[in-house]
Every structure is written in C-alpha cells, then in structure tokens.
Amino acid sequence: MDELPIDMSHPAVRDYLSLVRLQVLTPLSLLINITTVIICAVVVNPSLGGVSRLHPTSITPRASIIAAYIAAIFVGQVGYCILLVLVNKPETKRTVVKAVGFSLVCSNLLMAIWAIAWVMEWFLFATILQGLLLVLLLYSNIALLVYHPPVSSRPFDTALIHAPLRFFFILPLYILFPLSLFLTLRLTYTPTVPGPPPTYSGWHVWPGFGVVFGTNLLGLIVVLTRRDIVWCVAATWICVSIWSLRPKPGPVYITVILFTILHPLALVTSYIFHRFYRPTGRIVLPPDEEGASSDYDRHPSHAETTAGRQEAVAQGNTNGPREVDADVWG
Questions:
Q1: What is the pTM (predicted TM-score) of this model?
Q2: 2, 37, 49, 194: which has the fewest Cβ within 10 Å?
C-alpha cells in the first residue's frame, strides 16, 4: 500500500490530528463520566451520597449541593465540547491542543472510576484516583494561565475553556481528595441521632479545620491577586455545601461561614482597588539628543543663559583662587 502524501512529522499535521482525536475522545469521556456518576448516585445502593452518610467526617458536605456543583461542571464541559467541534480560530486551537489536550479526557475517566471505587468503599484506591485527578487538572490550569491566559478578545475561550477547567480543579482540591483521604485514614465518627452531639471529641476536629482553613486561605489569596470570579464562586459554593450539613464542630463551622463571606468581599475589594487605587507608572522616553540639543540651543533664552554661564566661568577662572606664596604666611 502506498504511503499517504502527507508529512506526518510536520507540527501542523500533528496538531491537526491531535485536534481530531480530541473532538472524538473528549465527548466520549464526558459521556462515560456523566453516565457512571448518575448510575452511582441514583441506581446503586449505597449511592455516592449514601457512602458519605455511612462514614461521616467533620468536613462532609451536603450531597445535593455537591451534586449541583458536579452538574454545573458537566454543563460547562458540554459547552467545551461544542466549542471543540466548532473551533476555527488558530489561538483557540492551540489552547485546546497544547494546554487542555488529553488531560481533560483522562480526568473524566478518572472521575468515573472514582465514582465506582467510592460506592464500592475502596477508599485507598479512591484517594489515589483523586490525587491523580488533582495533578492532571493542576497541570491543565497552570498551562492555561501561563501560556494561554484568558483575554477579553476571546470571551468564549474564557467561558468554555478556562471556567470549566477551573471549576473542575477546585472540586478535588477543596473536598473530594480531602474527603477520600479522611476515609482512608479513618478520620470519621459514628453517626448519631439528629441534633448536636454532646461532645465533638471523636470527630477529628482539627484535621478538618486544617483542611478547610488551608484550602480556603489559598483560594482567598488567588481571588485577591487575580480577581478570579470562577474561583470565588466555586470556593463559596463548596463552603456552603459544608456548613449547610449540620451538625459541624465549631472550628470547622465558623471557618467555612467566615470564608463564605470573605471570598465575595475579597473579589469586590480587589476590583475596587484595581479600578481606583492601582498605581500607574509613567514611562519617560529619552529625547532625541541631536535634534533636542540643537533646538534647545537655538532658543533665545537658552542662548542668553549659555552666554551668561560662559562669562561666569571665564570670570571664575580669572578671579578664582590662586597659589599663595609661602612667604606671605611666614
């Protein structure tokens, strides 16, 4: 069979083939992810939320709010798949091929496998999957911010590429990976009757406080420095999901309530400072030495000043200090 008259090693050809593969594999992986999560959340017993109720922790969120968060991720990825099929701008093609690439495909598959491991209560395996998912999404988000940052001239790239990837990344960072790790380390407590328990001594309060405080402090810094609306919304959403499920120990409950207020406040403050109080530096351009000096010398006032200075220098040379004979001073 004759070879194709195409140079398969050419970078443009390789990028085109990668784009075609992404146009096929990304929707397929998303479909697998959606189907698996729905089956594990609705059909299987115990479900995703049921496992959380069987093994409660000090940071366990309300399942319905996390389900709505995951649904928002799926909606964003559907928009990304549509953009992937209809992409025509070279900048957008480079973004989806170089920055996102197959990381999103692998992330969707890992999320689907994690759902199965979670309902099977394979918590160590689920923690490893969440760690891999976190690394993949961290790589994609860093590549997007460093090499393909969002710009106002391409709003669809910001809404359908950057926002879904950021939203997806915050889910394992804030709740899924810490929750899987807590169950692996058996940092759980025995479910009690409804109402506040008499004591929180067996709830592993301080590890939960460390997780919610550390992740939210990181998010607050990002919101303040980058004015990141997506991070602000996602972090606030996760905080609401944690404090809405009662009871919660005081350090955890107060922390998530506090950051629920601080994230939007930090975003508004950062925008106000950037808009009204940002220092603006002035750029001083060096003058044209030949042209500027000749025009400056031809100016009448400067000619008079220069002549006066030359006369003063001449008088200074005449009337200036001279060498004194040593005999004068004895």
A1: 0.81
A2: 2
